[in-house]
Automatic annotation (TrEMBL):
Gene Ontology molecular function terms on file: DNA binding; DNA-binding transcription factor activity
Protein name per Swiss-Prot or TrEMBL: Transcriptional regulator, LysR family
Family under the similarity heading: Belongs to the LysR transcriptional regulatory family.
Keywords for the protein's UniProt record, in alphabetical order: DNA-binding, Plasmid, Transcription, Transcription regulation
Gene3D superfamilies (alphabetical): 3.40.190.290, Winged helix-like DNA-binding domain superfamily/Winged helix DNA-binding domain
Keyword Transcription regulation (UniProt): yes
InterPro entries (alphabetical): LysR-type_TF_proteobact-type, LysR_HTH_N, LysR_subst-bd, WH-like_DNA-bd_sf, WH_DNA-bd_sf
Any Pfam family hit: LysR_substrate
Organism name: Paraburkholderia caribensis MBA4
Signal peptide feature range: none
Keyword Transcription: yes
Ranges of residues in domain HTH lysR-type: 1-59
Amino acid sequence: MNEVRAISIFVRAAAVGSLRKAAVDQGISPQAASHAVMQLEKSLGVRLFHRTTRKLSLTEEGQRLLHSVEPALATLSSAIDDARRAKDEVAGPLRVSAPMALGRAVLWPSALEFAALYPDVQLDVRFDDHFTDLVSDRADVGFRGGSPPSGGAIARRLLPIQLIVCASPAYIERHGKPSTVDELDAHRCTGYRRANTGKQAPWEFLIGNEIVYREVATTLCVNDIDAETDAVLAGLAIGQLGSFSAAAHIRGKRLVPLLTQHMTQRESIYIYYRHRTEQPLRVRTFIDFMIARLADNGDFFLEPAELRA
């Protein structure tokens, strides 16, 4: 027996004085309404109604039950209405999970723009470079750089990630620039230590039709992509940076791309989320907003002509 449904029928029948009218209001047959109330009476071990062919009235036990359950049903009805409104209003809590590596350069400006447009959304953004999923993060929406996430989430590709070897004009003026991958051994280089493994990421190059990984000796290694970018901009070393970090600096002549014939572009930035029909409007609106701002946005990667320049 569905006790909540049976109690709802009981309360409605008490209000209108008829099981038949209560059944119509509940969208069920009179027989189903009568059966539900009889089952409730059997479960409680008391009669709730005096029944005649013309009249339905509450027993003393029925009066006491009605008095007890009406406030609870009102609270339940209010909660259901709130949940329905949440599906139709751009308001309420919204939790987002994203790598620190993508945060400031790619995601944060658009997230701030969204927050300004929708002030009734309580945006809760967690930046963490460890690989996680929506369930463990208790997140509504996630972002990831690399391969698309597994685990049943829907993933939408936003941007390619080009790994670009680059240096500042000041570094090149002092140390020159390598013309081959092997010549990197004679240069100062930066490194990035991955948060999820604690290991230094190898540099990767397209050699012919194959991607080749090289362990590059580094003079400066960090676990923060923005810090690595700052070191390369300062002229301390050559770095292999993601296009989302390097593109604007290359266009602004603050960095010079090197060894572009060996640049790789095998990974991407993804947004991922649960099935859209299960999402409240605030979540669907955020997903659409971020896709509109970021999908194939040329600010975050270089065109072939720019790499040849």
